[in-house]
Every structure is written in C-alpha cells, then in structure tokens.
Amino acid sequence: MKLRWMAYPYVLWTVVFTIAPLLLVAWFAFTTMQPDGSTVFTFSGFEKIVGGDRVPLDLLGLQKIFGITLDVPLYLNIFVKSLQIALLSTLACLAFGYPAAYLLARRTANRRGGTDLLLLLFVIPMWMNALLRTYAWLALLEPNGIVNTVLSAVGLPRGQFLYNDFGIGLGMVYNYLPFMVLPIYSVLVKVDRSVIEAAEDLGADRRHVFTRVTLPLSMPGVMSGINMVFMPAMTTFLIPNLLGGGRYMLIGNVIERQYMIARDWTTASALSIVLLVFVLASMKFLTRYEKGNEGGGVLL
C-alpha cells in the first residue's frame, strides 16, 4: 500500500497520452464546426461511413470468380479490404513464424547458455526504424530494382511487386513476423522436456507428439502472436503509403488523409471510433481464448 504512489506517474502518462486523446477523438466524431465558429452535435461522420458512394465489393476475388455483384458503401469496402489483407498477412506470419519459433526453441533446448545467432537475426531488425526497413523494400522490388535486375539477368520476366496486394502483404509480413515468432518461441522454450519424453515413452511418434503435446501447449503463444500481428496490420498506414505508392487505400490511409489532407476531422474521428471498437472486440476475443488456454493443454 505504501508503494502505491509509484504508480502515479504511469497513471498520469495513461491519462495524458491515452485517455485524453481518445476523448478528443470521440469529441470530434460527434461534433462539427459551423461557418460561424459554433460547434453542434452530429452523426454526419457515421452517416458517411454507412452511406455515400457505393462500390462493388470484391472479397478474395469471389466477385471475379463467381460473378457475384454486391455494392457496398465505399468506407465499408475499404474496411473489408483492410481486414482481408490483415488476415492474410497474419496467416502468412503464422505459417512462417511457427516453424521458425519451433526451430529456435529446439536449438535453445540443445544449447547450454549463450545467445542463438538465429534468434539475434530475428531481433536485430527490430532495432531499426520501421520506415527504413520498409524503404529498403522499395530498392529491392521497384521496377528497376535489385530483384527485377536479377530476374532479367537470369532470363526471367520482370515482375510487378509493388503497388498491389503482394507488395503490401510482403511488407506487413516482413515487419510483423518477429511479433509472431517471439511469443511462440517464449512459450515453446518453456515446455517441460519431461512431458515430451513421457509421450514418447507411451509410444507416440513425432507427429503425435507435436499435434497432441507441443501444439496444444504452444497455443497461448500462438494467440499472443496473432494478436500482436493482426492489430497493427489492420491499422497501419505507413506500409500501404510506401509500398502502395500512395495510391493503395486501406482504412489507416483513409483516416490519415481525412485528418491531414481533407481536414474532415468528423469523418476521420468516426472512422477511428469504428476501427477502435473493432480492434477492442478482436482483442477481447483473442484474450479470452488465450486465458482459456493459459498454460496450454495436452490432447489425450
């Protein structure tokens, strides 16, 4: 109780840099300024989100494949597009990240002290600014970049790697892959080796040991990694701005442009509120699942 005062700086930090900005965003979302300088209460920002221009919704190319035509509001289409890319990027990070984390955990278990070089290779890029890391991909993937130069040198056709879903997804996977690897690694490295040995003594082969012991025990790390990758992938605007050439619009880019270019703070704040509610709901679901599987569990 006597040390409660030590929490006051953190409370002050939270109030000033988290709660106060959120209250300002909420204020701008429900108010608009009149020509005479007065402020009136309004739902115009939310009305623009659910109304306005309607565009064809193309979800995972289904419209082109099956000829389905579904017109939705413009902002909803952008939101669905952002959700689609965030989910695909998260799944790609999981597909590449879990084997990497498993390999790192196995190497760590076989070492006696010291730092694994492979683990350093995952951590060191995080020490560099994300803007510089993303700019590096421009030099690699641009039409006259290193990748296309190498392809031409070996007689292969040049590819269009930027300003499309592939370029943006690649940038997201590269930037957020460590956030998937490290949580899974931190869980796998703590798995008691005696549990695996017990399963092997009972006749389980490697496949059953992984599917019934290792994978269930690693689920808290998997859910943490999904949480840490999906949220920034859903809200980012830096990667689409750079690798999308400023012409690729995701929900983060729309909010940024409404604030900085259009100066429509009401619509931008309303979009921010909708995105915040969605992110909080997603975090609540993932956190509940993670707590329900805390400590993992062995499938019998």
- Topology pattern, helix = H, strand = E: HEEHEHEHHHHHHHHHH
Second rung of CATH, namely the architecture: Orthogonal Bundle
What name is given to the CATH topology? MetI-like fold
Structural class: mainly alpha
Number of domains: 1
Level of helix content?
55-70%
What's the overall geometry?
globular
N-to-C CA distance? 45 Å
Q: What is the CATH C-level name? A: Mainly Alpha
- How large is the count of helical segments? 13
Strand proportion:
under 5%
Q: What is the average per-residue confidence, as pLDDT, rounded to a whole number?
A: 85
The CATH homologous superfamily: MetI-like
Strand order of the largest sheet: 1-2
Query: Can you count the beta strands?
Result: 4
Q: What characterizes the major β-sheet?
A: 2 strands, antiparallel
Radius of gyration: 23 Å
Uncertain spans: none
